[in-house]
Hints:
The chain has 210 residues and is an alpha+beta fold. The chain has six helices and nine strands; from the N terminus they run αααββαββαβββββα. The mean pLDDT is 95.
Amino acid sequence: DGKDDVTTLAIKTLFQQGPGGAASVESFTRRSRPAGTKWYYASAETEVLSLVVSAATGRNLSEYLSEKIWIPMGAEADAMWLIDGGGHELGFMGLNATLRDWGRLGMLLANYGELGGKQIIPADWVKEATRVHAPHLEVGVASKFNGYGYQTWIIRKDQPFFALFGVRGQGIYIDPVGKLVVVHTAVFAGPRDSRAAQFELFFTTLKNLS
C-alpha cells in the first residue's frame, strides 16, 4: 500500500533514500509472533544477515562472494549487485548474473559445495542449509507447498530437493541426488504469481530422466 514494511525497506535501500546499512532496518522493531514459532519471509531479516556477514568478515558482500565462490566456481562473467545509499549491497535482492553462471552455482550446491575435486563451500554447511530445522519450517507448514532452510526453499518432504527463489519468478531448482539443476530467469508480471509451471517442469524432467 506504499506504507508497508517492504516499501519502507525498498525506499531506504533500493531507492537509496538514506544512509543505507543498519539505518535501513533499525525502524523494524515490532514482532507479530514470538521468535521461532511461525515462519514468514521478511526481506528485512535477510538484509540484517547480509550486514552481519559484511561486518564479521570486514568485507563488502561483492568482494567476499567473488573470492569465496564466484571465481572458484569458474563463473564466466562478472555479476552485478545493487547497492544502497551507503554503498552496501542489498542483501535481500539485486544480485544479477548470467543464466549459465546461475547454473554453475546450482551445480555447486547440487554437489554440496564441491567442484572439480575442490571443496569450495563446506559440504556439512550446504547440507544444513538445505534441510528443515524446526516444525514451523516444514514443507506445507512454512508455506502451502514449501519448507525453509537457511535462505533456501525445501520443496519435498521425502526427497532432498531444494531451490533458490527470486521475487519475480527467478528460480534455481536443485536435485542433489540426480544432479539436476533447472534455472529460470525472471518470468512473473507480479511478485505473487504462481510457480506451478516451474514445479511441473522440474518434476516432469526428473521423472523423464529417471
